[in-house]
Specification:
The protein is 41% helix and 16% strand. Helix 5 links the parallel strand 4 and strand 5. The protein is an alpha/beta fold and 270 residues long.
Length: 270
């Protein structure tokens, strides 16, 4: 059932509708049992949460995405293997890889390729609606998955968090307002992503993290997402008490994403 939080005419609603259709076709090609067998053949998942809290500095989750609905193509020269190596060499704590094809130009093979050359934990970033996709993430080598509260009702969120625990991956649960944060915490999420981008209007403001961060219990890991473009922005997020930041579009636009990453690392946590 579609979350009532999604406006019927919003872009997020279009994405969810397409994802449901896509899943129907995918499951015909790859039955769940086959995915589970693939997942069980993978090495044990890496500890995404621990990677975000190790050390005294704010951790950076470096993201790979070829394009986005709001910005179009971000990077023509998109090579997952080279990007994974560069991010790992320049201080990333973890990777985030967009696997949605229609809207972000990604696929699971990109994640699989990065996994072969990188020891960092990898977050599968996609629009996850069913436990099938969590098994799919693990089968292709992901260590963590993104759950977007805005597109999930209460029962879906509980179901997907349970499936993540069963599969062995960690769940970054994404919110962008107080009501979504309440739902995430009620469901037992302990790894909270604060998205500075409103997924229905696509407006971005770092004030979202500033507003929500202090409402999150100290027992949770806090990740600021979207709109972070400079060391000054990183400092602003650190002042909110977050543990990590996720940066994608800014890095993808740079001639040397790895070198651009260096400029965002080394900022102490509050």
């Amino acid at each position: 059932m579609q979350s009532t939080a999604i406006a019927a005419d919003s872009f997020l609603a279009r994405i969810v509708s397409h994802k449901r259709d896509e899943l129907t076709q995918t499951q015909k090609k790859m039955p769940l049992a086959a995915l589970q067998q693939m997942a069980q053949s993978q090495a044990a998942p890496r500890d995404f949460r621990r990677a975000l809290t190790a050390g005294k500095n704010l951790a950076v989750i470096a993201e790979m995405k070829k394009s986005s609905p709001s910005a179009g193509v971000l990077r023509e020269d998109f090579t997952p293997v080279a990007l994974a190596k560069s991010y790992a060499a320049h201080g990333a704590a973890a990777l985030s890889i967009l696997t949605d094809e229609k809207f972000f130009g990604g696929n699971l093979e990109n994640l699989q390729k990065a996994r072969t050359v990188c020891t960092l934990p990898i977050l599968r970033k996609d629009f996850i609606l069913q436990p099938y996709q969590i098994w799919e993430a693990r089968a292709f080598g992901a260590d963590a998955i993104l759950l977007i509260v805005a597109m999930l009702d209460r029962s879906q969120l509980f179901e997907l968090l349970f499936a993540a625990a069963e599969t062995g991956v960690q769940a970054l649960v994404e919110v962008h307002d107080e009501a979504e944060l309440d739902r995430a915490l009620l469901a037992g999420a302990n790894l909270i992503g604060i998205n500075n981008r409103n997924l229905q209007t696509f407006e971005v403001t770092l004030e979202t993290t500033e507003r929500l961060s202090n409402l999150i219990p100290a027992s949770c890991v806090r990740v600021a997402e979207s709109g972070i473009k400079s060391r000054q922005d990183v400092g602003r997020m650190a002042a909110c008490g977050v543990d990590a930041i996720l940066v994608g579009s800014h890095l993808m636009r740079q001639a040397d994403p790895g070198q651009a990453l260096v400029e965002l690392t080394g900022v102490p946590r509050r």
